[in-house]
Amino acid sequence: MANPNSSETHQQFLDRNPFEGFKIDSTEILNGIEGRYPCPKCGKSRKLFCYSCYVPISPLEGRLPKVKLPLKIDIIKHKHEIDGKSTASHAALLASDDVKIYTYPNIPDYANEAVVMIFPGQNAISISQLLSGETLDSILEFQSQPLDQLPAGYNRSTLMQTIPKTREEKEFFHRVKKLPITKAVFIDSTWHQCKSIYKDEKIRAIPCVVIQNRISQFWRHQKGSPRWYLATIEAIHQFVLEVHLHCWGLNPDYQGINNCFTERSVHQQFENMYSNDSRAYDGQFDNLLYFFKHMYDIIHSYYNHEDLYAYKRRLL
Question: Greater confidence, 197 or 50?
Fold first, then answer.
């Protein structure tokens, strides 16, 4: 008999309904779209939206959810990443006022911006540390002290041994009044492509931040990668969610939080996050997953979850 406290059994439970409790608008309107339509900008034939121009097809204009983010997001896409398979376009379409996509090596100069990159580099800090009330200069001081081991709950991609005192994780009930950054950068690529982009000196100069472990529901298989390698849209959702929790806390009635964190130690902190603030997290960013959930449902209408290679990857 399987151990009911094992990560496999717990994840199997979550996999039954991975979007349970999330406040995602009904995608019924998408199911009613038949055939393909020309993109309003480039004229190419598209099904629901143009993944090159980041605009919906004409029958969906003005009918899709719109998400407002707490800061700007730049997505740096590898030139060999296939647009139609990437989820980065979901963010650019649903949060168009706050998200821009660039194709590497044509990227902005971030030298004079208060910016961080979401990447599990060896000098990465957690979002708790990012929002500890310190300035961006203090964040850079954190980076100057090599990180030997990521705190529990974070992506493990480097050879690490100990956790310096400067990197010890802070709890979620901390509140900040002002974000020390105005922008976050994500790399949209396979893990192997991602490493090649990270070698760029302009990219490596950006302070790195890691998000909490979360098991991916992406149906696209990446050979050799564990399930906590998230799709780009999942990573963006996780990042802005964690930022929001640190700033304004969690609405006690919001149930989607249970599917956002893998580590049990974080689940034990949920009560510490509860807040009566009207801005407390209550699904404000869940519609970032609008198209992601729609595609997930379509894939799972044809295939059993257990039969898809993407969900057979190791959990840890």
Answer: 50
Look at residue 278 in the predicted model and tell me its pLDDT: 92
Q: Find out whether 193 and 81 touch, Cβ atoms under 8 Å.
A: yes
Least reliable range by pLDDT among 169-178, 206-215, 261-270? 169-178
**Residues 283 and 258 sit within 8 Å (Cβ to Cβ):** no
- Supply the pTM of this predicted model: 0.85
Strands 208-210 and 115-118: parallel
Going edge to edge, which strands form the sheet with 208-210?
99-103, 72-77, 183-188, 115-118, 208-210, 125-126
Distance, in Å, from the CA atom of 316 to the CA atom of 295, rounded to the nearest integer, reads: 25
Judge contact between 153 and 265, C-beta under 8 A: yes
The CA angle 152-127-192, to the nearest 5 degrees, is 70
Per the DSSP assignment, residues forming a β-bridge with 46 are 37
The residue written with tokens 């480039």 in the block is 42
Nearest to 67 by CA among 46, 94, 48: 94
Q: Is 247 helix (H, G, I), strand (E, B) or coil?
A: helix
Q: What is the pLDDT of residues 277-294, one digit of tens each?
A: 999 999 999 999 999 999
